[in-house]
Amino acid sequence: MAEITYLEAIREALFEEMERDPNVFMIGEDIGGFGGAFKVTDGLLAKYGESRVIDSPISEIGIVGAAAGAAHMGMRPVVEMQFIDFIANAYDMLTNYVATARYRAFLPTPMVVRGPSGGYVRGGPFHSQNPEAGFIHTPGLKVVYPSTAADAKGLMKAAIRDEDCVLFFEHKYLYRRIKGEMPAGDVVVPIGKARLAREGTDLSIITYAATVYKALEAAEQLEREDGLSVEVLDLRTLAPLDDEAIVATVKKTNRVLLVHEDTRTGGIAGELTARISESCFEWLDAPVLRVTAHDVPLPYAPSLEDFVLPQTPDIVLAARRLAAY
Amino acid sequence: MPRPATQGGGRAARDRAAPPPAAATESDVSLTRAQRLELYYWMRLTRSLEERLVNLYRQTKVVGGLFRSLGQEADAVGSAYALRRGDVLSPLIRNLGSMLVKGATPVEILKQYMAKGDSPTRGRELNIHFGDTERGFIGQISPLGDMVPVMAGVTLTFKMRGEDRVGLVYVGDGATSTGAFHEGINFAAVQRCPLVVVIENNGYAYSTPTAKQSLVKQLADKAIGYGIPGETADGNDVVASYEATKRAVDRARRGEGTSIVELMTFRRKGHAEHDNQSYVPAGQIEKWAAENDPIDRYVARLATEGVSATELAAIDAKILHEIDEATDVAEQSDVPEPLDALTGIYADPPAAQPLWFREGKRAVIETSERRSSWGTFDAPAKGAD
Predict the structure, then answer these.
(1) Which residue of B has its CA nearest to A54?
(2) How many CA atoms does the CB half-sphere of A62 hold within 13 Å?
(3) If pLDDT is split at 50, 70 and 90, which confidence band does B130 have?
(4) For residues B287 and B183, what is the distance between their CA atoms, to the nearest angstrom?
(5) Which of A187, B15, B64, B148 is the most exposed place for a label (fewest CB within 10 A)?
(6) Cβ–Cβ below 8 Å for B139 and A70
(7) Residues paired with residue A263 on neighbouring β-strands, in sequence order
(8) What is the pLDDT of residues A109-142, one digit of tens each?
(9) Are A153 and A10 in contact (CB under 8 A)?
(10) Which of A52, A64, A104, A277 to mutate to test the interface with B (most CBs of B within 10 A)?
(11) For B116, what's the count of Cα atoms within 13 Å in the CB-facing half-sphere?
(12) Distance between CA atoms of B289 and B266, rounded to whole angstroms?
């Protein structure tokens, strides 16, 4: 089986879901004739027509709200944010309307809001954000952020089939750099389940998205140079968190390093630390450490961006500190 | 096969409720005598039900705030009456009349206001913030303007499925200033969604007069900016409100897309019951009450059409009886079970877990908090344990 890129895997999922369920439709800016800013939706308009692949005005509030209304009526909209940074424009619609619809009105709102997220691409402050933490504390939303091509495809299927609204973060740095073989058939990756990216016994790194690869790089180096056996847990889903997998890895290695590309303050590492402390304190042989971005609006110049964001040597340093504690 | 419309709340009430009245068909220009009496019934029911809510509010049986639509009954009832069964409307806080026309029942309204466990939202949302897609109305949320994009999406599905259904969304004068209004109506317009946007221009957004919302002479002028038709009508004339809305509804049903109907009216009570309207120029409220009450005007019109005072009095008595019955039923209901707060945030999982400090407990503060009011705590009397 040929390998395809993370981006192509997302596209495959969209095609397969559009084919499987006539209620699925796409809406976003430049997604039709142009195929999307990153070409994720390329080819869908030609196959499924204007009625199911809608080129919208620049209206994040409008298209997220419209998707909600369509979802109430039984459709399955997939909304693209051209860059996930623009999801901020739809914050009210998502948190006040969509997230609460089932609870206060018994109105199902099965929809997906997806878009390219993340940095390391010299995109500057408005094309490189990781806004996921702003949504994980909102009851009623689910948030996923795959790191592999197979997970991107399988989780997109899960997101489209979920009865509630799923925010689907795609890491743009991984779009064309990560490849994988797709499993045969219609494989759905369950939302809410983490993935063990690497097994180990001395130390656990819990992370997601692009920093999974930095964690794996660091793990290789630590094994080679320090003889450390490092486990890497890829969360894949940020809301709901896979408490079982988190507790299992903490109890197994007793030393935990949390890594994410999001800013330090208010990033999900804080939530994970609280949960680990509440449930696994006696199993810890060291404080829970975290490697994150600095609390800085993400700058554009390579030397600045590379300083602000977490890098592999940062993870190696933190792991060594944990190992020595 | 497209999936059928999803089910909303209030099933039991819906099953018991009388079917919504059929509006005039497209070919009828005028309303029948029975329909003209129905318009009176809905307006009178709206006002009387709100008056009952005021009584209950003063007895602290209504929890939270009370929002009147006094003086706006004609615009709400007349516009909603232009819809057919199968059409969907999205009401706002002054649209009790619209919801009643669409099949909401007095007992549901009372249970909502009294925070009962079997209210249409099971106590989760307040006042008339509830809906039922089967009966054809979708509950609003408080952030204004947000329902416009939602209804653009609802009506987009009508277009996608080739259904000749129409949507109607209400906004106030204030809501036309929001980004959500702009994006929603623009999207509906460019996609040619079968949507009627009714702007109820009642002069005030809380304390802010319309002149501070926008420089336009009429809010319907905003239609030019969206490339769609816009019409302004007398919102205190129930037949004029009906006819203007019907024109827009018929346009939408013919495939001509979105339009604006602005209904001019006046908000005779405060934003909510606590608001004393000190910002309204002296005498203005009294002037509207004396010279331009929508129900008084309609009664006068019906008199010229041969409807007797006795006939109307009989309708009034019927309404009072309905409201009395509904009040009795609503008062029997219990408050929501505290643990119900944790259910139904998602389809899966079906419920959240109580936090560790609540395990095994049904509620914590029920012995200390006065049930009859909202969020108050009575300190124990000196000498009590």
Answers:
(1) B191
(2) 24
(3) very high
(4) 37
(5) B15
(6) no
(7) A293
(8) 999 999 999 999 999 999 999 999 999 999 999 9
(9) yes
(10) A104
(11) 20
(12) 9
pLDDT digits 0-9 by tens, B267-291: 999 999 889 999 999 999 999 999 9
Judge whether residue B15 has pLDDT over 50: no
Contact (CB, 8 A) for B70 and B269: yes
Q: Smallest Cβ distance to B152: which of A25, A69, A100?
A: A69
Radius of gyration of chain B measured on its C-alpha atoms: 22
Say what the pTM is. 0.92
Tokens of B200: 């109820």
The burial of A171, by beta-carbon neighbours within 10 Å (0-12 exposed, 13-18 middle, 19 or more buried), is given as buried
B8 Cα to chain A: minimum distance (Å): 6
Q: Which residues of chain B make contact with A142, given a CB cutoff of 8 A?
A: 346
Residue with tokens 């936090």: B355
CA-nearest residue of chain A to B356?
Answer: A278
Distance CA B226, CA B195 (A): 13
Active site residue A127: yes
- With beta carbons under 8 A apart, name residues in chain B contacting A61: 149, 179-180, 183-184
**A/B interface, count of CB pairs below 8 Å:** 154
Q: What helix, strand, coil percent values describe chain B, rounded to 5?
A: 40, 10, 50
pLDDT tens for B146-181 read 999 999 999 999 999 999 999 999 999 999 999 999
Residue B359 is given by DSSP the state T
State whether B157 and A164 contact (CB < 8 Å). Answer: no
For residue B179, list chain A residues with Cβ-Cβ distance below 8 A: 61
DSSP string, B301-354: HHHHTT--HHHHHHHHHHHHHHHHHHHHHHHHSPPPPGGGGGB-SSSSSSBPPP
Across the interface, do A74 and B7 touch by the CB < 8 Å criterion?
no
| Closest alpha carbon within chain B to A66 | B153
B344 chain-A contacts, CB cut-off 8 A? 102-103, 106
Q: How many CB atoms lie within 10 A of CB B30?
A: 10
Partners of A69 on chain B (C-beta within 8 Å) are: 138, 149-157
Three-class HEC string of chain A = CCEEEHHHHHHHHHHHHHHHCCCEEEEECCCCCCCCCCCCCCCHHHHHCCCCEEECCCCHHHHHHHHHHHHHCCCEEEEECCCHHHHHHHHHHHHHHHCCHHHHHCCCCCCEEEEEECCCCCCCCCCCCCCCHHHHCCCCEEEECCCCHHHHHHHHHHHHHCCCEEEEEEECCCCCCCEEECCCCCCCCCCCCCEEEECCCCEEEEECCCHHHHHHHHHHHHHHHHCCCEEEEECCEEECCCHHHHHHHHHHHCCEEEEEEEECCCCHHHHHHHHHHHHHHHHCCCCCEEEEECCCCCCCCHHHHHHHCCCHHHHHHHHHHHHHC
What is residue B4's predicted lDDT score, i.e. its pLDDT? 37
The complex scores an ipTM of 0.95
Exposed, middle or buried, A223 (CB in 10 Å: 0-12/13-18/19+)? middle
Closest CA–CA distance from residue B62 to any residue of chain A (Å):
19
A interface with B, Cβ–Cβ below 8 Å: 22-23, 25, 51-52, 54, 56-57, 59-75, 77, 92-93, 96-97, 100, 102-108, 139-140, 142, 162-164, 240
Contact list, B348 vs chain A (CB under 8 Å): 162-164
Put simply, the answer to whether A102 touches B347 (Cβ < 8 Å) is yes
Cβ atoms of residues A112 and A72 within 8 Å: no
- Which of B156, B186, B357 to mutate: most A Cβ within 10 Å? B156
**Quick check: A102 and B154 CB within 8 A?**
no
Q: Which residue among A127, A137, A260, A294 is the active-site one? A: A127
- What is the Cα–Cα distance from A113 to A142, expressed in whole angstroms? 10
